């Protein structure tokens, strides 16, 4: 077997990455259904269709899985805005952030609900993350927004409150799904519902920031 062939058929790094993704996806389901105390590593392993020993190879205990799951969720939510720089166009950057967050409420609603439940309970497992990584992320992104404001490229708004607004308004469609469906007399969401929500939020938030909607 040639080296070139081996590179196509045997990629241990990709296998480890894929197994980790499978475990964390299963963990989202288990923690959402049973909570932290009710979920077990055995249940997560069975849902992931992996031996329990494989799960323990990647994560030493349930608390580590729980923390890694939230790291994955928060990274997924904020990725599109993490790389934004002062030289970028504010309307384009904020539009991408809003639309990505709405789409994630559609594709990963359990992640949003898990985060909401953790925060409502006082963030017993996320407190260090909130005080460290998340606080630093918000401050860094607020600095970029403030530079846009100082340069006259958008209206005078509170950058931190703007981030809070985008988080809360986009996650609303996942966290309060039952309420929305009942009020709108729908049995379930459709893709067009999220497209409409993304259009609405983009219009309201950008106009509130003194920005035109990108065409």
Count of distinct strands: 0
Largest sheet composition: none
Q: Level of helix content?
A: over 70%
Number of helices: 11
Shape: globular
Query: Please, what is the average pLDDT?
Result: 91
Q: How much of the residues is beta strand, in percent?
A: under 5%
What is the N-to-C succession of helices and strands? HHHHHHHHHHH
Distance between the termini: 52 Å
The stretches of 5 or more residues where confidence is low (pLDDT under 50) are 1-8
Query: Whole-number radius of gyration?
Result: 20 Å
Pairing-aware structural class of the strands and helices? mainly alpha
Kindly summarize this structure in a few lines.
The chain has about 220 residues and is mainly α.
Question: Which key terms come to mind for this protein?
Answer:
mainly alpha, 215 residues, disordered N terminus
What is the strand and helix layout of this fold?
Layout: H1 3-9, H2 12-38, H3 41-48, H4 52-58, H5 62-82, H6 90-107, H7 109-120, H8 127-150, H9 159-175, H10 177-183, H11 191-208
Helix pairs in contact: 2-3, 2-5, 2-7, 3-4, 5-6, 6-7, 6-9, 6-11, 7-9, 9-11
């Amino acid at each position: 077997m040639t080296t070139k062939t081996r590179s196509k058929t045997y990629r241990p790094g990709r296998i480890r990455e894929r197994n980790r993704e499978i475990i964390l996806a299963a963990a989202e389901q288990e923690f959402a259904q049973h909570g932290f105390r009710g979920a077990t590593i055995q249940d997560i392993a069975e849902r992931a269709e992996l031996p329990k020993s494989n799960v323990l190879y990647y994560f030493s205990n349930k608390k580590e899985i729980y923390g890694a799951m939230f790291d994955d969720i928060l990274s997924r939510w904020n990725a599109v805005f993490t790389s934004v720089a002062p030289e970028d166009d504010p309307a384009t950057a904020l539009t991408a952030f809003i639309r990505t967050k709405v789409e994630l409420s559609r594709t990963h609603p359990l992640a949003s609900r898990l985060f909401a439940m953790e925060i409502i309970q006082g963030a017993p497992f996320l407190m260090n993350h909130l005080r460290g990584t998340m606080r630093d992320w918000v401050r860094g992104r607020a600095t970029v927004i403030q530079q846009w404001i100082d340069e006259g490229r958008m209206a005078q708004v509170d950058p931190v409150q703007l981030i809070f607004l985008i988080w809360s308004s986009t996650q609303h469609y996942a966290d309060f799904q039952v309420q929305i469906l009942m009020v709108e007399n729908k049995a379930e969401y459709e893709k067009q519902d999220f497209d409409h929500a993304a259009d609405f939020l983009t219009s309201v938030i950008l106009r509130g920031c003194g920005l035109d909607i990108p065409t």
